[in-house]
Amino acid sequence: MDESIKQILARESAGGAVLIRGWLRTARHSKNVSFLEVTDGSGFAGLQAVASPDLAEYEETVRKLATGCAVEVEGELVESQGKGQKYEIHASRVELVGGVGDDYPLQKKRHSLEFLRTLGHLRSRSNTIGAVLRVRNATSRAIHDFFQQRDFLYLHSPIITLSDAEGAGEMFRVSTLDAKNPPRDEDGNVDFAQDFFGSEAHLTVSGQLEAEIAAHSHSKVYTFGPTFRSENSNTARHLAEFWMVEPEVAFCDLAGLAELAETFLKSVFRDVLEACPDDFAFFDQRISPGIVSNLETIIESDFVQLPYTEAISILEASGRDFEFPVRWGIDLQSEHERFLAEEHVKRPVVVTDYPAEIKAFYMYMNEDGKTVRALDVLVPGVGEIIGGSQREHRHDVLLQRIRDLGLPEDEYWWYLDLRRHGSVPHAGFGLGFERVVQFITGVANIRDISPFPRVPGNAAF
RNA sequence: UCCCCGGUAGCUCAGCUGGUAGAGCAGGCGGCUGUUAACCGCCUUGUCGUAGGUUCAAGUCCUACCCGGGGAGCCA
User: Fold this and answer.
1) What's the pLDDT tens digit per position in A248-268?
2) A285 touches strand B (CB under 7 A)
3) Phi and psi, residue A219, nearest 5°
4) What is the interface pTM, i.e. ipTM, of the complex?
5) Bridge partners, A220 (sequence order)
6) By three-state DSSP, how is residue A224 classified?
């Protein structure tokens, strides 16, 4: 394989022959010399190739090169005479591998992210999306590193599931039945017993329940995979297909989970900043000024922990005229979360111990009988990036809760059975991968974080 | 899904109380002694989102729909 441009730029010294292949970010021609800035995606910075009219192919090839052309350049790596880069290539050969039409839509100038979204096949060549993809990659690695270093098992939870485990959201149906003429039972309903899996199947909305199974054998596990919600959400923070990270830890309570969440986020932020300094310089300059120092502050300071009841008191005492009135028992609305994270503490805030009524059935009931051991991590700008809880591991308490809520007891038989055999206190959280990348890059819309975003009405690329 | 705003050249936008479309960038041609999202000169580019309607006349006013943005709900 060729040495990447990133590797070449990291060399200790100039000198020696180099060969690069990539795409032109810009081509600047003047009478006696042409400058070609070549990128191969390995890093934010491109490598400048300098071509003189002495080259045999100068008039025919070099002079005609423009933004977007695919090229191969051979030459010597030299110290740059100009400012702005350490090294450049003194070209001895420039080959046009693939030209561009004069309708090539990407310019050297800034494009709107909305326009780039219509060019899903080309936008990864732009500065912003290119940087996002590198940071996304680095974030993914940092997440695996964090868990692997701590002996967490990477569990591949299923993508196709039979039950809507926690009512987490609308689900996409998976079926091989003839949609136009499905088999019917005697009542006239679609007979899913004849479907591929012998019953109704959907794309997963969460790997949590499977992670709980694995936590009861391997103690510390995490999932990291695609998740699907068919809700008609049209916001800058929702995708119909997104990646979720779900650690699940046996012998862990809510306090242990809060500590894990904080350590985890800080570790990921630190690793990603270190892995992509050029990309962050770009985000800091062009996308979200101050993002780097903001992340550094978060890494160095403690998260604020706030029990729900206390959060309500703070909101009530704020004197704000919220659209949704504040009282104990309400679910926190966007405006409340924003106030807490962006104005009150100005950093990530961990809200804990929510009223049971507004949380899922599987969360551990506190001694007060009113609140459950749940936890949300709220960050400025994005809102909730982590939601988790200590799970109810007491069989009788869980069974009563399922019955109280009128949930289908038989569908949860194995989930309940897990509480009958070697049940232990355990806790876990879910983290929206794209939301984390959104937060650390400062990119406003989650559709620019996913390389191929799926949203209501659009899965074009 | 709801509320608000928008859709004009390849892109980013201007276009007043209705009178028949424009600037920068991109692109083409030429120039320039090493440039940095280079620079200088000249040139080209339009179903004004779609379909109806009002009017002597619609980019401009009205209606519906489509798409995009901001906010909300739901959530990660």
Assistant:
1) 999 999 999 999 999 999 999
2) no
3) 70, -60
4) 0.86
5) A249
6) strand
